[in-house]
Amino acid sequence: MPPPVFDDALRGYAFAVLKRDNFRCRYCGLDGSTSFANWLCLSWDHLLPKGHPHRDDPEYIVAACSFCNWADNRYFDLVTKRGLKLDGLSQLELVQQRLPYVERTRSAYREFWERNVARDHADDDGVA
Ligand SMILES: [Zn+2]
Fold first, then answer.
1. How far is the CA of 41 from the centre of ligand 1 (A)?
2. Is residue 54 classed as helix, strand or coil in its secondary structure?
């Protein structure tokens, strides 16, 4: 019997890309190999917009956790406004170019998390 063929991202079409990137988010470093919960958070991130001739080339798709994947989800719409370009850049250059925008959203979420979600958050009055 042939091995099962999966048509989902994690086990199927994204697996080769995730494996190439060592199952780590290329933006925040979340490591999908260290826990099942982390692995479930992984997705693949297109570095080029819909309609670009190289969009579906695995060279221009990287591993990203789902948060980093959508953290700057207007990235392609804002490329021109931000004075960025997409053509002629390598995979690494495209990731590095996007990284500060992802990190900015991540920092804002971190602040919120520390204030409102983390067990020992600052305004915790100790009431259970
Ligand atoms: Zn991430």
1. 9
2. coil
User: Quick one: what percent of the chain has pLDDT higher than 70?
Assistant: 94
Tokens 């080029």 sit on residue: 48
**Around ion ligand 1, which residues have CB less than 5 A away?**
25, 27-28, 30, 65, 68
Encode pLDDT of 78-90 as tens digits: 999 999 999 999 9
Query: Measured in angstroms, how far is the CA atom of residue 126 from the centroid of ligand 1?
Result: 32
| Number of neighbouring beta carbons within 10 Å of residue 123 | 6
For residue 128, give every residue at least 6 positions away whose Cβ sits within 8 Å of its Cβ, in sequence order, or none: none
**Separation of alpha carbons 60 and 40, rounded Å:** 22
- Name the pTM for this structure: 0.88
Q: Please say whether the beta carbons of 121 and 115 come within 8 A.
A: yes
Domain-by-domain residue ranges, the chain? Answer: 9-116
